[in-house]
DNA sequence: TTAATATTGTACTAAATGGTACAATATTGA
DNA sequence: TCAATATTGTACCATTTAGTACAATATTAA
């Protein structure tokens, strides 16, 4: 259990890598650039990430899910109004600064950016998006129990509407940044749940 | 007007390039690979595409628009039922083969795949997506005239719902390929126009 | 036939790429 | 104090990259 101490923390450097990956696609993000952002050298990197860039990306997807998916579940639970929390999550997208609107959903981006050879990571992104669908579906169910969502509709299907809307708005906000237009799209789509 | 005759046709080779670009992102598609698919050598390429890969991509976006946007307008006109044509366009996506479901909208993909440095091409993709919004909006208007779309709703706003739905379904079909689920998402979302 | 010219194919280059090898270093426990 | 060991930083490597230079080639018009 001896040895030279690490100068870094796994979670911290993966967060830095996510920042880089969100600015350009997997192939365009060079290891040199990633390592510079992470603040570690190649020696440390290839020791900890035996699979190189691909493993880093995989772990960044998992790390992202801990922050997004798990946090969403926790907040839904905590607030006691899961659907209200979800709707607010969407509405907030209308008002973020323009630069942030150029960023998409980390999972959806992975599906678009990864080439066919990165099969494993693509499947992981699909898995995490389906987990998001599950979370949306559970929010719909609790919304139905609270009388906030139409009870005669299949929650699973409404969950699909929501994940599809999630996928769409993350592209649309990159082409149209007007808060008013984005807000009208969001409000309009939530009518599907009524 | 003399000189060695070209062995290729601009439109043909750009179509081949589009095939390559749709399989991987801009940065990951190498010129060698592109030229092999296009069937021309570097000499011919850099003579015709002075701007290199970036110009090729730009012209491929424009070429794609001629085939998609212009064709959509023509079909809407020809069919005499613009909204029916648009809805059918979406419904067809539910039943295409799985491999095709892994491909997205060429413009939306551009927004996700291009890095910040390709500003010009990103703006072109935005322009073409906005042209699609205009087309959707005009379909809504003609649907309203024909009593197929609710008349009390702003066509521009419904156009936004449609372009956002377009953006979304092109991501969603990459994560969920079931024709039934995709069909239910499409049918459900078109309720927003009623 | 031939001058003018547009296109082609290939050899080449400089830079960047992902990854490896390994000596130097900083710690722990005996 | 020192052996054992985990981490670090750097020099290095083979490959791939986008793009250039230019001689060879195939055509048209005089």
From TrEMBL, chains A, B:
<dbReference type="InterPro" id="IPR001647">
    <property type="entry name" value="HTH_TetR"/>
</dbReference>
<keyword id="KW-0804">Transcription</keyword>
<dbReference type="Pfam" id="PF00440">
    <property type="entry name" value="TetR_N"/>
</dbReference>
<feature type="domain" description="Tetracyclin repressor-like C-terminal">
    <location>
        <begin position="100"/>
        <end position="185"/>
    </location>
</feature>
<dbReference type="InterPro" id="IPR011075">
    <property type="entry name" value="TetR_C"/>
</dbReference>
<dbReference type="InterPro" id="IPR036271">
    <property type="entry name" value="Tet_transcr_reg_TetR-rel_C_sf"/>
</dbReference>
<dbReference type="Pfam" id="PF16925">
    <property type="entry name" value="TetR_C_13"/>
</dbReference>
<dbReference type="InterPro" id="IPR009057">
    <property type="entry name" value="Homeodomain-like_sf"/>
</dbReference>
<keyword id="KW-0805">Transcription regulation</keyword>
<dbReference type="GO" id="GO:0003677">
    <property type="term" value="F:DNA binding"/>
</dbReference>
<feature type="domain" description="HTH tetR-type">
    <location>
        <begin position="13"/>
        <end position="58"/>
    </location>
</feature>
<protein>
    <submittedName>
        <fullName>TetR/AcrR family transcriptional regulator</fullName>
    </submittedName>
</protein>
<keyword id="KW-0238">DNA-binding</keyword>
């Amino acid at each position: 259990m001896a040895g030279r101490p690490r100068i870094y923390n796994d979670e911290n450097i993966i967060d830095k890598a996510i920042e880089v990956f969100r600015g350009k696609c997997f192939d365009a993000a060079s290891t040199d650039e990633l390592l510079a952002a992470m603040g570690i050298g190649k020696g440390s990197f290839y020791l900890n990430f035996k699979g190189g860039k691909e493993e880093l990306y995989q772990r960044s997807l998992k790390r992202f899910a801990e922050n997004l998916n798990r946090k969403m579940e926790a907040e839904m639970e905590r607030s006691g109004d899961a659907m209200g929390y979800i709707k607010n999550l969407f509405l907030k997208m209308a008002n973020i600064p323009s630069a942030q609107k150029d960023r998409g959903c980390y999972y959806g981006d992975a599906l678009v950016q990864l080439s066919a050879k990165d099969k494993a990571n693509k499947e992981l992104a699909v898995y995490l998006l389906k987990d998001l669908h599950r979370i949306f579906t559970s929010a719909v169910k609790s919304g139905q129990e609270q009388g906030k969502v139409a009870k005669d509709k299949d929650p699973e299907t409404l969950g699909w509407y929501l994940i599809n809307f999630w996928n769409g708005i993350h592209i649309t906000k990159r082409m149209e940044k007007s808060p008013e237009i984005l807000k009208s799209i969001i409000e309009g789509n939530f009518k599907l749940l009524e």
